[in-house]
Structure formats: C-alpha cells, structure tokens
C-alpha cells in the first residue's frame, strides 16, 4: 500500500471507531482495527490528533453523498425519486449527527461552519436536488428553489433526534408532507369548489 492509501485506510478506520467510541480512542485501537502495527500510524501521520481531524473532515466531505445522489435517476416518477433522495440525505444527516453527539461537537468543524463553506455545500446540494426534480418542477405551484429549501429543511429537522423530539420522520412522511403542500392542483385541505 502507498502512504496515501495507508493514510486513507487509517482515516476510514478512525472514523468508524469515533462513531463507536468517541474521542477516547487510542492509537492501539486504530492499529488493531486496521490490522497494522501501531508504529505504522506514525509513518503516515504525526499524531493521533491529526488522524482524528482527518477522519472528522472526511465525515463532513460530500464524497459519498455526491456519489449516492448521482445514482438517482431523474426519469423516475417524482415521489419515487424524492423518496430515494430523502433516504440518502437522512442516512447522511443521521450519521453526521450521531458522530457529532458521540464526540461532543455542537456544530460542524470551523472550516465547514464558516458561511462560505456552508453556502457552497448548500448551493451544491440545492443544485443536485433541482437536477433530480428535473422536469417535474413544472408540476409544482412554488418555485423549484423554494421546493428544494422546504424538502432539505424538513429532511434535516426530521433526521435530528433533538429537533424532532425523538420522533424521527420517515422518508415517506417528509416527501408526502412536502408534496401535499407544493404540488399544483387541489390541495388536501381545499374543497372541489375552492380548487376551481
């Protein structure tokens, strides 16, 4: 394995251990989980803290999320593709929230918490969701950017244990709630006469 490949493998193992045990992990645990000698760690990083920081940065990078969203076919029926989208986003949010709670973080790392980094991520996510909605945007009675905002916001809130008061929302609950409120045509809370 090259030093870069070894480092990436150690970062992956460290992230898994952080999710299980929090910040109390040791280099010995990391080495055992990676199947390497403890000294090998210090050939690719200078300290455990460097490895932990790299693992946390990896947890917040869009990498896996981007790949999984790319797999959603925009030609699917609207509800189906939104269910897949929300499911992927919830898995990401829940994993991130779980890691943050386990290691005592109350917000993302500073380099992601700054407005520029957060804005870039939100813009990227909004663009990808808009692509997934695709031509179905014409079926909405709100602008697509408002739809994307509502979907992302409800997915985020419904995936956070504390925000949702311990009652996490399912993808079906998120998608159906947003669709009922945004699809063009008669709404569930209107009579046929009101819809005319």
UniProtKB/TrEMBL annotation:
The keyword Transferase is assigned to this record: no
Keywords assigned by UniProt, alphabetized: DNA-binding, Transcription, Transcription regulation
GO molecular function per UniProt: DNA-binding transcription factor activity; transcription cis-regulatory region binding
DNA-binding region: 26-45
Listed Pfam families: TetR_N (PF00440)
Superkingdom per UniProt: Bacteria
SUPFAM superfamilies (alphabetical): Homeodomain-like
Keyword DNA-binding: yes
Domain HTH tetR-type residues, every copy: 4-63
Matching InterPro entries: Homeodomain-like_sf, HTH-type_TetR-like_transc_reg, HTH_TetR
Name of protein: TetR family transcriptional regulator
């Amino acid at each position: 394995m090259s030093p870069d490949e070894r480092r990436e493998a150690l970062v992956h193992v460290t992230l898994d251990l952080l999710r299980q045990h929090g910040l109390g992990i040791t280099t010995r645990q990391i080495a055992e989980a990676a199947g390497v000698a403890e000294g090998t760690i210090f050939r690719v990083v200078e300290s455990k803290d460097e490895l932990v920081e790299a693992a946390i940065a990896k947890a917040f990078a869009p990498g896996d999320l981007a790949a999984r969203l790319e797999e959603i076919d925009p030609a699917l029926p609207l509800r189906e593709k939104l269910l897949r989208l929300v499911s992927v986003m919830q898995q990401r949010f829940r994993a991130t929230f779980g890691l943050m709670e386990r290691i005592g973080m109350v917000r993302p790392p500073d380099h992601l918490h700054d407005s520029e980094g957060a804005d870039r991520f939100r813009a990227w996510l909004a663009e990808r969701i808009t692509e997934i909605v695709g031509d179905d945007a014409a079926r909405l009675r709100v602008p697509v950017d408002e739809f994307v905002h509502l979907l992302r916001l409800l997915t985020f809130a419904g995936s956070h244990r504390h925000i949702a008061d311990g009652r996490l929302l399912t993808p079906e609950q998120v998608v159906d709630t947003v669709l009922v409120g945004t699809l063009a045509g008669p709404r569930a809370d209107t009579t046929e006469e009101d819809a005319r």
